[in-house]
Amino acid sequence: MTSCVGNEASLASTGNQKQLPTVEETVQDGNILLKINNIDSGQPQILQANENERLAALDAFLGFLKLQGKETKALRVARGLAEHTRKRLNEGKALVVYNSVNVAEMAEQPVTPERATAWLAKIWSNLEERLEERETGIQDFARQAGLSIYAWPRKTSGAGGAGNNSTYAIEFLKLPSANAHSPEIAPGGVAYVQDLTLKPAFWLKPLIRTGFALKGWRRVAFLVYGFGGLAVIGALFVLLWLALTTQSARIPSGDIATLILFAAVVGWLGFAFLSPFWRLIDLRIIMAPDLLLSLRERGVQLEAAKEPAGDGQHVRVIRLVRYSARCPKCGEAVHLYNGRREFPGRLVGKCDEHPAEHVYSFDRFTKTGSPLR
Ligand SMILES: [Zn+2]
Q1: Could you tell me if residue 119 is inside a domain?
Q2: How many domains does the chain have?
Q3: Distance of CA 327 to the CA centre of its chain
Q4: Which among 324, 311, 302, 337 is positioned nearest to 211, based on CA atoms?
Q5: What is the C-alpha to C-alpha distance for residues 316 and 308, in angstroms, rounded to an integer?
Q6: Are residues 288 and 171 in the same domain?
């Protein structure tokens, strides 16, 4: 018992009160005694916690990469860096930076040392683009794991010239404070992350490069698109109707068929272009029309999100995003789909492996879902 008291006294002097076990615990449990020894030494304990959080951040980063499905070379490089860093941390070694030859080895790419720099330069710029699209998701993933930092691959350019000696490493960055709600996940439910914030198809890029904030001329453009489009379609139908009713006697039947076909095409185009507009206004988030996407992207949503505009006001931002989660039943990725007839007007999360059975609801605010089957 005396030893316990002694420990307690020395603990109090470290001032590290919140991690203190009670004296009873110390007596009952040898493990906790061991912990106290660590705390006694002060500095190492703080370092230890730091290492643990770094490890957890690397785990979160790797977990996020797993969610991405098919692995590109760029993501393979990121995974290699993260795995190698995790290995060093696990072995208690100090973190180091890597050169392009190291990175090529980690990514298990058959690149000769002479060509590694050129090879990685190309892959890295691709990786930076991929990471930029996924930054929110990587942060969300770390936040859901209860962390305050996240892992981020970083290139530090060397002096350049002949012996171009850029270095590569995993950095640990502080998570930006979110509009802090860490919602409860229902039993058996899922937590979604916004894993991708996409660049839209090339023809839309100049328009919604960083989200299409609805203010100024863009707000006007958005409304003109919706209401103007409706007016144009309406006017075309009125004209058609006038043409058919006032001159029907003089129009040959072949022309009438052409006119009706024309009307059908106009109606279909009107529906295709305008219904997303109205549904987006109505539902705030819809599956993105294929028209807006590059070919390689699927399962993407068009979201009209409310974002703080700095001066306490909010601005509505239209953006292309993809929400995904990990299926708690089988561990595969969950992506969003239209609820169709079974869940009208809703988006539901379906697991990639068992889409008929592993179905979850989707709440855009809490970013959680509960099982629907
Ligand atoms: Zn599943």
Answers
A1: yes
A2: 2
A3: 16
A4: 302
A5: 9
A6: no
Buried b (16+ CB within 10 A) or exposed e, 53-85: bbebbbbbbbebbebbeeeeebbbbbbbbbbbb
> 357 C-alpha vs ligand 1 centroid, how far in Å?
8
Indicate the residue type of 326: R
Based on the fold, state whether residues 239 and 311 are members of the same structural domain: yes
Domain that holds residue 90: 46-180
In a domain, 26, yes or no: no
Q: Do residues 135 and 129 lie in contact, with contact meaning Cβ atoms separated by under 8 Å?
A: no
Measure 326 CA to ligand 1 centroid, in angstroms: 8
Domain membership flag for residue 3: no
Ligand 1 centre and the CA of 353: distance in Å? 6
- Cα of 368 to ligand 1 centre, how many Å? 16
Q: Give me the average pLDDT of each 10-residue run along the chain (373 residues).
A: 39 38 34 32 47 91 86 92 93 89 89 88 91 89 88 84 75 79 76 78 53 66 78 85 72 77 86 83 84 69 79 77 90 91 92 93 91 91
CA dihedral over 70, 72, 74, 76, signed as positive or negative: positive
Q: How many CA atoms lie within 13 A of 1 on its CB side?
A: 1
Q: Are residues 269 and 364 in the same domain?
A: yes
- Ligand 1 geometric centre to CA of 371 (Å): 11
Are 154 and 291 part of one and the same domain? Answer: no
